[in-house]
Amino acid sequence: MGDDPDDDSSSSPLLSQLLSQSSSSSSSQPSRLQMRFERSNIVSPAVHIKRAVLAKRQKEAWEARSKMARVNQVVMYRRYRVGELPDIQLKTQDIILPLQALARRDPAMAGKLFCVLFDRLFSEISDIEKQSYTIQMRDHVQKVLQRNYKGTSNTVFVGSMLRIAHQHLQLTPDPITIGEGSVRSNNFPTGVILLEAMLNYSGGGGASATNPTATLPVADDASTSKRKRSSRNSTGNSNAAAASSLSKSGSGISQDAFENSNLLPDKAESDWNQLARLYKSLREDDILLGISEKISRTTTTRQALENELKGDWATALRIYEEGLSHLDEPGYNWESSASSSSYSKSGNSSTDSHAPTPSEIEQWEEGKLVCIEKLGKWDALRQHTLMEVPDPQDLFGEQYIVPYLRHFITSHIKEEKNWPELFKFLDCLSPEQRDILELRYPADLAIVSVVRQDFDRARHFVMKYHHTFVEEWAPLHPLATSARHRKLQTLQNVVEIDEFLQFVGHESNFRSQAPLKRLLSSWSSRYPDSKEDDVTVWEDVTAHRILYMQILREKFARLCNDGGELEGGISMNWVHEFLNTHKRQSYHMMAIAARKMNNLH
Questions:
Q1: Which end of the chain lies in a sparser environment, N or C, as judged by fewer CB atoms within 10 Å?
Q2: Is 152 helix (H, G, I), strand (E, B) or coil?
């Protein structure tokens, strides 16, 4: 009661303490808030990385949309009138522009359009200028086909040139060029039609109704035969049985041309040989035997050809070697050989009364090399190739590039002891020669790069092969089964090269057993066909797989530390056992296929 409310002396210490605490807390709070919410001027590098990745994705998406828009873009070349009146006021440009756009998109249509335009322009040339123009155009067609089988190959363009030559026979090049160009560009039917037209043309005396003075070109002796070991003689009498065989088989050769081919042996012989070659590529065995029976002067050609068609390569090789050995015997009596042959009993001895022609001898030599290749005698193939072409640099010459260049490369790839010589040959090539090899044999160059363990270069050749394969496969007609099958035979080897390169390109595949098992299991379930594919295809697949397994074995050995165990339970003992098992399986499957084909040599 006696307390004075205005008297705060008793509470002053407590108040001063509270005021001091509040002042200290208020002075320190702004500094804590400032430290907590302070903005840093340094930006993290992760922000820039995220922005760059996002911008890159947006750019790629925009480029993909732009590309699809360009592909799906529809160009309006002309808008036709809509209404009752017809749209008849057409300009020349209204027809040319759509046709030109179609030709750019469709190679087959471009080839047909080219033939039509050429035929129209050629018919407009005056008779005075036509003779000189014909000579120039014949030279141009010759150069185009020669350039085709030397390196580059354009199936549609070469087919167009062959069709033009068929329409205007005075423009046809020599038969060897036609045969080589047709084989190289897979235009077998077109080449057959052209050669048959040339034979019918020559069978009527060598002149046409439109140009009586025109003559067909004849192959030079230098290109017809590489080894002249006997002189040309006149052919024997015509064989009616052979002509009947051709007519029954569906050949387009007229009876007059077949019977009169002996009248002009020098002009017709090369045509018949190239025609037989194309029919052999088309697997028309009946027609091929009919042609062989007609043009062959000895039974050696006929017997060897029959054994080739049966797949008895050993017997065919023996017959070829016997025929070639008789050429070195001076004064050999071919007529006595014919009388002792089994063919003399069938009335064919009249064709054996003469020595074989140079073209027939060349056929024996090429057939001998083919038989050696089919039998897998790589050392003998190499020796025969080098005997014909002692200097490997001459293999790119016009008369040796087919078939000796392929035999040289194949025989050296198959034998490991010949690899240094092959590497030296490839390293000394000129840029032009290297381009020819890359265009003709990208798959073989990919194998060579794998052997040298230059995997990046091998990937380059694999991509080049795929590009070439698509270009050559697209124009092939669906009914051209032989040509399509021939192209597919090399595809499996390149696919397995690509799979092997993808496997060795990732080190993680060597850290566990699953990738190796998956790779070899896929190979074990994929083999060539024992009926459609010959032994050389099986041998290529098997030899290449053995090579890949050897490289994988060496790769695992380098990764293993003194035979130690890697991750995933991989050891060198397991690797050796696993690879050897698949190696034995590959050899076993090839042996089964060889037994079915009766080719155990």
A1: N
A2: coil
